[in-house]
Amino acid sequence: MNAGSGARPSRTFQVAAAVGVCCYVLAAACGMYVLAGGLSPFLQVCLWGVHGIVLALLLRRLGPTETALGAALLAVAASAAAGYVAGLAREDLTLRQRGEQVAVTVVAERLDPAEGRKGRHSHYTLERAEDGSTIPGEMETTSDLYDVGRRLTVLVDPEGEMRPRTPGQADPAVELAGAAGLMLVAVAGVGWVAWRGRRHEGGGASRPARQVPQGTREVEEREARLRELLRGEAFGNRGSWRFAEAVVEEVPREP
What is the Cα–Cα distance from 11 to 3, expressed in whole angstroms? Predict the structure, then answer.
């Protein structure tokens, strides 16, 4: 019972530490998401690097060094990707909130220049159907979806900061699900380190208790086999124990 009660504080501490590190990962990702719009790419890379170092040090307290470094790299990469995907979702949400639905006509189309096997996006120039005025910015799609003269309903940013998009393109559900999945991967990396650390701790504590008796039995078995061989050698050589043709010990013969 004492052994069980002695193990509980360690397990409780490890679980609490893992939960705390997970909260730190989520908080750092949210903070980087908020700051991303006002920071230069160089500053963002530096902050992600500092975050990775701090995370590796925290994870080192939960598990082996190699596992902690790998999980820290995975968590930083997944968090950065989640921030990028969430940024796309933010644009969609902003366009849905302040954009206005406008009936438009496609008046021109252009394709990206061919670059090897890279996909060529299509860019469309739109005009309002009611007065023929040009919509600011080009609507972009990943494939050739519309022909010139096609009438559509799009969301237009009154401030002209975002490209016009169809209501289907401005749906943030896919991006939000992707960002949530990436953050789940980052948190799972922390749990993996905690699990490896707990397993390593349990395996290291119980291994000597199993190996000591096993080693003692092996020594006893080797000694018993050696005694049998020596008896056989003495019997076959008429009272002399020999090793490599040299007499080791003389056994007195019975009268």
Answer: 13
List, for residues 20-52, the tens digit of each pLDDT value: 999 999 999 998 888 877 778 888 889 999 999
| Gap between the Cα atoms of 30 and 34, Å rounded | 6
Residue with tokens 């909260």: 23
- Amino acid (one-letter) located at 209: A
Alpha helix positions (H), 61-172? 65-98
CA 198 to chain centre: 19
SS3 for 127? strand
* Phi, then psi, of 219 in degrees rounded to 5: -65, -45
Under 8 Å between Cβ of 7 and 201: no
CA distance 134 to 215: 87
